[in-house]
Amino acid sequence: MDKLLGDPDKTAQFEALAMPHLDAAYNLARWLTRNAHDADDLVQNAYLRAFRFADGFRGGDARTWLLTIVRHTYYTTQRDSRHQRADLDLDQMPEEPAQEGVSDPAAIAAARDAGRSVDAALSRLPYAFREVLVLKEMDDLSYKEIAQVVDIPIGTVMSRLARARKLLLAYLKQGGQDGL
Questions:
Q1: How far apart are CA 172 and CA 81, in angstroms?
Q2: CB proximity list for 130: less than 8 A, separation 6 or greater
Q3: How far is it, in rounded angstroms, from Cα 91 to Cα 11?
Q4: Could you tell me which of 10, 178, 149, 176 has the C-alpha nearest to residue 75?
Q5: Among 121, 100, 107, which Cα is nearest to 164's?
Q6: CA separation for the pair 128, 66 (Å, rounded)
Q7: Sign of torsion, CA 107 113 114 119?
Q8: For 104, left (φ over 0), alpha (ψ -120 to 50), or beta?
Q9: Residue range 28-87, pLDDT digits in tens
Q10: In the chain, which ranges are continuous DSSP H helix?
């Protein structure tokens, strides 16, 4: 590994390839792990794997390639550890910065409450639905890119997205009922 890290050309090429997609990788990791600390670890492990196997990247969409590695790293970690992670406690989430131009405390509180409601509703979605919804709505991947990352047909992506959106809307309409 020291030899790989010592190669400035490979390091520079990897940085140019992978670093623009760090936010998307973290976003996916955050929703997979449901924990900011675990997401940091997952992204770090995934980027190490990506760096180690960067020679195997044959072109194409680097973001899709990286998100696939993040997802596979997560599943490998889950399989190896054989234990489930605890649900994210919304009180432990980092503070959100105030929105620019919004100084009204009531507006800031309402925005935070809405964010918590969406987070709670997302956490209730079945995993397969939450995964495709996050990749589409938060990472703005195309159906084809999601199909590649999740390794399912495009039709299944579209079906899961439609069902995820309906369920999410139903959970949000329920508001504070049933634990929300």
A1: 33
A2: 31, 122, 123, 164
A3: 38
A4: 149
A5: 121
A6: 19
A7: positive
A8: beta
A9: 999 888 889 999 999 999 999 999 888 888 888 899 999 999 999 988 888 776 544 443
A10: 2-5, 8-18, 22-33, 36-52, 62-81, 105-124, 127-133, 143-150, 154-174
Does pTM top 0.90 for this prediction? no
Q: Where are the domains of the chain?
A: 2-81, 105-179
Residue type, 114: A
Residue 51, CA distances (Å) to 10, 14, 46, 169 in order? 9, 7, 9, 39
Q: Which fold has domain 2-81?
A: Rna Polymerase Sigma Factor; Chain: A (1.10.1740)
Confirm or reject CATH 3.40.718.10 for domain 105-179, answering yes or no: no
